[in-house]
Each structure stands twice: as structure tokens, then as C-alpha cells.
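Lab notebook, bench 4. Still working through the backlog of constructs that have no structural model yet. Next entry is a single chain of 197 residues. Request: give me the C-alpha cells for it.
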Amino acid sequence: MSLADGHKSEVEVYTTSVVIRLEERVIRTQLIILPYAKGNRTLLGMDFLQKAGIVLNLKHRNWFFSDSPHRTYDFVKEAIIQEVQSRPNLEENTCLLRDDEAVNGIWGTACADSGASHSIAGETLYLLLQKEGANFQKTQITMSLADGHKSEVEVYTTSVVIRLEERVIRTQLIILPYAKGNRTLLGMEFLQKAGIV
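Model written out:
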């Protein structure tokens, strides 16, 4: 299992194939069940969104089906899930990676993560920003993982300029100083500020 910050761990899970009915459409998808998790929410990932042809409009906080873009829906909507049968294999979830982004003049790759509220600098970017003499502020935040678990952690923050497709966007990055091998994530705060749909 890969967390949003890039950490990986081997865990035992259950999988099942389900039918999700959404706005009179039927989409068959795989669900992963974390048997040890308590109080977590049901999350529909990129594999489901792509299969269903769903387009997220982050600026207007709504979504639509790619074959009918004029009918939009607010982000919060309950889905009726009907269990069908179990299947052992599952597709790996991936995120959109870009290689034409620069942070404070440092070119690299970041992951656009619509599930993250804030942007996080990966280990490599953090080390490069340190080398460049970036100003870091130490602070405490409550971090919420995708499964609903929360923990109080000490982090650093810094203000950076991100260049993307000839646009310049100033944004705050959170640095997890204890994280090793994690990737740079551009969260909802950045995506909305940049006007990315």
C-alpha cells in the first residue's frame, strides 16, 4: 500500500467486485477492504473515476460525466453500492505525473493529488530547497489520512513559486521532515489557486 506521501507498506487486505449505481449509470469496480481500519470512509479512487468517465471541476467544486459536460453535480453525493462477487486481482491506482514543473527554479516531477488539501514537498525537493537556502517555519498540524485517521505532527512550511506551463503560482509547501522517499504532491489548495480543472 502506498500512502499519499509516498510511504509504502505491505498489508493484508480483502478485495471485492461491486456495482456502483451513480446517476442512473452502473459502474463495476474493485474495492479494497482494510480489515484492521476502524471508522474509515469509503473512497472512490482514480480507477473508478476513469472507468466511469467522471471529470472533476476543482474550480467550481463539482463534477460531470465526460459524455454530458453540461449536467454537473456537487462533490458531495451518496452512492448506492451493491456487492456482487469477490475477485482477487486489483488494478494499481496511479496519479498524474508532470515533468514540466519548476519549484523556485528547480525543475522536476510532482503528483497532482485531488485527495490532499495541501501541497507536500517530497524528500528530494526538501533537500534541494535546503541546499538553496529556503526559509522554513516549524509548526504543528493535524494530519488526516485518506482513511479518516488523524494525528498531530510537527512539520516545516515554506512559501515557493511553482512554474507550470508558463504560469507562476506562489504556494505554501508542507515538509514532513521524518518522511523518506516520499513524492511531491500538489494538493487542492494549489490546484484551485492555479485554476486547474
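Notes after review: The first helix runs from residue 46 to 52. Residues 1 and 9 are 5 Å apart (CA to CA). Flag for follow-up if needed.
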